[in-house]
Amino acid sequence: MFPGGDMQKLLQQAQQMQADMLAAQAELAETEVSASAGGGLVTATVTGDGDLVGVKIDPKAVDPEDVETLEDLVLAAIQAATEDAKRIAAEKMSPLGDALGGMTGGLGLPGM
What we know:
The protein is built from two helices and three strands. With 112 residues, it is an alpha+beta fold.
């Protein structure tokens, strides 16, 4: 027997949580996060699921004598945008993971 309810109710809850998880993942894929480096000289945009979708470079950042600084700015902007996207994803998915933990009795199942 299942503590606290019947099998049908448990299955319905699992199906609803799966639908919520898929909806959250789809929303993250459509969410774009931008971050800048060098006081706005370089801006990177990533999706909520971490795909790099754009880089904008202010012409003032382009110095043929100092390519390394531009490379550093691009990298910093991408890293900042990626970190922001990870934070947003964690915030979005955390309630679903918490609910799953409650359903599995806190068993610590991998990927849950």
